[in-house]
Amino acid sequence: TARDLGAFPKPKRILLLVNPNGGVGKAKRISDSVVKPMLQHSGLTVNEQYTEYGRHAVDIAAKVDLDEVDSLVVVSGDGVLHEVVNGLLSRPDWDRARKTSIGIVPAGSGNAIAASLGIVSQLVATLTVVRGETSKLDIFSLSQLNRPRIYSMLSFSWGMMADADIESDNYRWLGPLRFDVAGFIRMIRLRRYPGKVYVLPPKHQQSHSTAKHQLTPPQSPSHKREPESRFQHLLDSNIKEPPKPWSVIPNMPFYSMLLLLNCPNVGETIFFTNTIRFNDGIMRLWYSAETRFWKILMPFIFDQQNGKMVERDLMKDLECGGILIVPGVEGEPDDPSTHKVTEPDWVTSPAAKAQNIYQKPGLFDVDGELMPTARTLIEVHPSLMNILVP
Ligand code: ADP
Ligand code: MG
Hints:
Radius of gyration: 21 Å
Shape: globular
CATH architecture of the largest domain: Sandwich
Order of helices and strands: EHEHEHHEHHEEEHHEHEEEEHEEEHHEEE
Number of strands: 18
Bound molecules: adenosine-5'-diphosphate, magnesium ion
């Protein structure tokens, strides 16, 4: 740091990204009444910018002059922070941009990252920015054929929870309660999601990429267009079974939910488990084929806050270094160029529909935002970014 070199520190320059629509529209008020004045009184240099349209924060982070900004701080929910991560990592100079610290002042309806970090209020969040302490953050990359890569700092989900998350957008006015309402509706109208999921053991991922990172002298990655991916070739749908050490999750013709987490909290109010570290280079995967209503409902009623969500036998718990998801039915793989995924008869038949067995392969949800349903490779990039922590 500047101080280590004997230089006099300059005030940190903060770019505040405020989503005027975040949460129930309270982000602007929070910024004006708490965040901006406190940061200014603390001697920081503050610039504020409102996001003017969906995904505006991607454009801002992709273009911001990194010589002029020390931290990008979001006043909204997980969605806008997700956009900042994606904007920074999409840049040609991503390897520099990734080191710019990011921060969150919880003012959206989905504030899982803030809750995970122990940022319990806007005040704590603002003090966190003043303090300037950061922690390394693992990032997941999500690759699909012929589409730009997506990056995630929080979660990927498919199945009941993804549907509830995305469909709850209609009840935005409810605030955080929107997830409970949509979740309950999805539980009583439960769907099944056909597909296959392959996993890579965590050691394999680590021995190759983390170790290499630490042992070999750092090479200038400026020529690399994006963070390294080792398994892009698996996106070729001609590959029926990825070779060892990948393995298929057995006995899974369909799922009711699948969740990949980088943080202990899924939402502000759902504390999943305390067994997660956000910079250990490991992905935590949970999945279930449970369809009995009461079996699914119980943990959501009794274990939302106690960190024991995964101790009930609702979901299988797995650590991994990579995941390949092939939605749809075996033998009739999805066609990523058209998004089409073939649906089996038992899913589309009138009888199946009457029983509310799902009709489509379901939505893919990354950090609370919708992404296309298609063959998807997810890899972990250990400690890729820096996030402000209390
Ligand atoms: P919440 O937690 O309330 O969902 P988010 O931070 O996740 O808050 O933001 C929700 C969405 O709002 C994001 O997808 C973002 O792209 C979008 N957004 C940001 N600014 C605007 C705007 N000015 N108008 C409409 N949508 C916006
Ligand atoms: Mg959101």
